[in-house]
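**Fold tokens**
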Amino acid sequence: MRTSSRTCKYELDGWTERTGERVTFNKEARSRFLNFALSPEAIWKGNFRDLNAAVARMATLTDGGRITVEVVEEEIGRLDYSWGGDVLASSAPELANLLSAEQLSAIDHFDRLQLENVITVCRRCRTLSEAGRTLFNSSRARKASFNDADRLRKYLARFDLSWDAITRNEAQE
């Protein structure tokens, strides 16, 4: 099923007709929902039934007739759960605890697998330097000068992550 802006508008118009309550997306929420709906992660197992139910739930949860990004993110989580965890659970729990659903959806599967492994290694190590030495064990020998901690810090920053965020999050689990 391909979801489009027109399809979402149709579903919202149906909601208005059934309930008498006019509901719209704010700009950011509409963009987020459409980006998700058109992504490969959105499998729409129930086709239009899933979409209709999603729009109805979001419309029900609106405040003042405007669907917000927060409502959209909650709905994406609900859809993920109902589809067996395909959207968010495809990432290790570590990633789901460190990054938002929007951030996760922007990461390629290839990069996601690598990042999951990097986080696993980081959590086994006591320091950023130890993690860097472990992760860059072969390439570090080919460098004239090496600062593995800095390389790891820069890699994590590409995903808006830090050593502190990773190790702090593990302590909370």
About this structure: The chain has two domains: 5-82, 93-172. The chain is about 60% helix and 0% strand. The longest strand covers residues 24-25. Residues 86-91 have pLDDT under 50 and may be disordered.
